[in-house]
Protein 1
Amino acid sequence: TWDWNQNVIERNVSSSLNFTCLYNLSPTRDHPCISWGSLSKTIPILLFFPEAVVSKDGSISSVGERYNMAFKIVRTESRLVREILTNHGFHEVHPNSNDFNLMWTGSHLKPYVLRSLQDFQKVNHFPRSHELTRKDRLYKNIQRMQQTHGFKNFHIVPQTFVLPAEYQEFCNCFAKDKGPWIIKPVASSRGRGIYLVSNPNQISMTENILVSRYINNPLLIDGFKFDVRLYVLVTSYDPLLIYVYEEGLARFATVKYDRTSKNIKNTFMHLTNYSVNKKSSDYVSCDDPEVEDYGNKWSMSAVLRYLKQEGKDTTSLMKQVEDLIVKAVLSAELQIATACKTFVPHKTNCFELYGFDVLIDSNLKPWLLEVNLSPSLACDAPLDLKIKASMIADMFSLVGECIRLFMFYVSKRKKHIFQCIEFLNHQISYQYES
Ligand code: ADP
């Protein structure tokens, strides 16, 4: 089901900077975790292996030691990140230390921290990423793209109003579309503070909130609603480089879906967040990492296999998902690239892993619900560990963490892991306009 990605890669490889020569990187005989770009034998590229989480292989752990690599973790738990880096021989330094190659933080970075970065240092956030990850900012940026590039080209999010500012506009819209509508705090996560309404007077206006049109025809599997978490890595905003991880997680509701409004208050039916549904006595977890289509959390590829068997066009679905990801990132590109120019001293200092939440409706149209800053790397089930450890290992390989100099490459280890949707600057927006 992923053949189309191969085309995307090849198309971009041939049209891009120096991907062609970096493309076939593979471990050297010298060390399993080191690759030398074919351009130069002076720049080692470190390869990361998910196996490091479970086995303490000496040859893997010697790589970080050989180059004296150091990392620090600030304001986040991130056990998985710590384990992968430590088991590759990276040394952990105190959160206040400036002596690091990699900083992994759970929150935005202050301008003075960014300004002090040296060329060999990397941090896992771009400045102004909240243009994507705050629900109200994301909607406003996409709305602006709808106005400038055509509504239908950017019809990727449900119609949304920011209250109290747009209360009147919402009431006018409500007169035509009775909903239901879904209410969300502007800067919250994990389903907190979310509820459905069928009338504006059910809205409590104690804080800034978003009111979005509720997608009431979700695609169901065995009668249950689900959404998909995709992992998207941006390694540069200028030029824009986006990678989509080939695997994701589908999270299922715990109560069968019913379109009638009598169950409007049942969060176990309407919200698909793991943090909500794990509280339900009906939540089913799966203990076998090889079984990917059982219980309330499936791998995305298991969902795609299921849908394909049902006769659904999953190739077209995933093309639309890719399109939605690119468009969402484009909508915030200018602000983030400008902030990078202002605050970030070196082009290779920042990278970011975003968690995209996508809901598919019964017409097989994907909708972007939100983009998460610091997506959860918790591994409550074996399937989480299997997917997230590979994803994190590949992310670090891709980010090209190495001594003093960094290069980008696409891993070709077992199979293509991060799929490259790389393109040069604004090429894509012309495409959408035509
Ligand atoms: P949070 O950041 O709190 O998780 P989300 O925007 O992801 O907020 O919404 C939580 C859940 O609510 C989603 O996983 C999805 O199941 C449901 N949901 C959110 N928005 C919509 C919508 N417009 N239509 C249908 N379901 C939605």
Note: The radius of gyration is 22 Å.
Protein 2
Amino acid sequence: MSLANRNLVTIDNISNGEIEALFSVADEMADSINEQSGLCQGKIMANLFFEPSTRTRLSFEAAMLRLGGRVITAVDIGATSLAKGESIADMAKVVGSYADIIVIRHPWEGAAKVVADYAGIPVINAGDGSHEHPTQTLCDLYTLRKERQTIKNLRIALWGDLKHGRTVHSLIYALARFGATILFYPGPGLEIPEHVLKRLSTEYKGELQRCGALNQELKGSVFPVDAIYMTPSSPHQLTMLPDVNIQVELEAGVDALYVTRLQKERQSPTAEQQELKKNYPVVDKKLLTGKEFKKTLVMHPLPRVDELAYEVDADPRSMYFKQAAYGVPVRMALLALLLGAKDVAIPKADDSFARKVDYPVYKRDSGVKCLNRNCVSNQETETKYIKPEFKIVSFDPLTLRCIYCEHELEPQYIASSEWHQGKLENKKYHSANSHWVRKIKPENLIIFPSEKEAQAHQFKPSAWNRQ
Ligand code: NCD
């Protein structure tokens, strides 16, 4: 099977079997890194980096050069026509006619999807705001596989800014898919977004336990665990987990501690940020003397700031420079596969840790907008052609997931498009909490963000709403 012409916008665009196949190609690349220069000869990669980058950008460039291809680059929005008010879609169409593959990093969540929708060539997301960073996840998984041979049943602790860290968001879904247990250790005020936790509990077969107050009682715990995602012991069984005992979990030992820095560029520089900085947890030699960290791989996507002490570098448990070095063979494999320069057999992998869900789509023009201000669908230059679009991920409560940034919202009012029977007075809107949400067929559902919007569309409150 070939991966040619595919996009990698989120980690869900690539299956477990395809990841395994990519890793076997990465092994090949690593073994003969100097001998690959014929593979992508004549191909051009456009590197569009509209946020700072060292590792991702340079490892993509090194990967393409080692494959014998060439690279064109734009690194600053100010130096491109985006600064003149050009839309991302127009830029994507143009760059798509200059290159064979695009690698994009952009501060807006969902920007990489827009590029993929319009470029007409394969697109790789190198980080879109705090949404996802799937190729970093490939490097992280590759490191875990190299060190532990498998990902299944590993206990991975995620440390630091779990709220804004895009590497963490991609990694979580991949770990759950491969059957790992995840321990969440956020810095105070930097907990994992609710929509990510919700998705973990609805789309994967493990059990999510929020620890909250319970964990205050934990004696000797180095850092408060905020939540645990326990993988099912067998993916074919329904999970029947008794109350998770965090202390027991921790004593069993952590296989990897994935440290991240405070993503200060994703917050305004306020006094609150100073607080977050002051209280940000640090991984150092002392912490690693804890018995739960005896055999722990210390990982970090880098760059580090103050959250990971330099004294850890000499410790054999430190993995972060290896992780960064794997960026070249992993990205060589990805480029060669997406450019169709290499075919690979896709092994049958265990995909049973995730549920397959086909959600209905909602894209009516009824005033519902994504609530994430940093979403590409809310930017002035993009609203001229992007129409808000959602997956209906739940009817109880009614929940929409933006197809661009994957943030969720719970709109309060609904109606049916089958209202008329010729009578205007039948045009009624209802509360989204009423039985109507299940009565109206998804294809007939109209969703309103407010009563005002419903009335602007000439709908009147139903009896239920008037009470
Ligand atoms: C990460 C990123 O850009 O999200 N860096 C990287 O690509 N290795 C992590 C970070 O910037 O903190």
Note: The two ends are 59 Å apart (CA to CA).
Protein 3
Amino acid sequence: MARTRALVVEDEPDIAGLIKHALERGGDIQVEIAAAGDLALKSVAEAPPDLVILDLNLPVVNGFEVCRILRMRPDTQRIPIIILTARSSESDRVVGLESGADDYITKPFSMRELTARVQAVLRRGSGGSAAAAAAAPMLYRGQNLVVDFEAISVMVDGRSARLTRREFELLQFLVQNRNRVVSRNRLLERVWGYERDVETRSVDVHVGRLRAKLGASARQIETVVGLGYRFVD
Ligand code: CA
């Protein structure tokens, strides 16, 4: 079987070398390095990789631009992209995700974290199985809705939505179990921790409030009569 090819776009040779070493250690990933944005685009055009790990502050063409260009081109738009950067402000994170990245890791990071994220992104790319859902992906990207589970950020049609903690956890659980029916009792158990004074009616109330904040994406939370709720793609 062919090894997975990852392109690491990083202008600091030490960091690029460390990443290459960490990812190649398992034996099933082969890493190429591009030290500038234009070189990355050239490399992708010549031989599209299975994954791009992208720094933001890069010579010639910056990482946001590289990401945007790759997402515009039909032949490269599905390549998973993980942005890796020292920029950690919320606006950078949002711009990064809106420019089409699948995940976002801030420096300093551990190699263990990076390899875990890489594996998660590659698993998702190979077909969204139940196992991938169990691995709790850090990002959901739908037509109108983008949820960053790590940053606890929800964007609806490009605008930040303000959810309460409970609403966020409810959304997270539904998204992680997407396309499957989740009963009210299971939601009570997993989201509420089964507080005895909470009735299943509470679940309905919270789902109602959550839907009201999700705009066009409200329809993605379906009521399954007699059973519970289901989040659909
Ligand atoms: Ca850099």
Note: The chain has two domains: 4-125, 129-231.
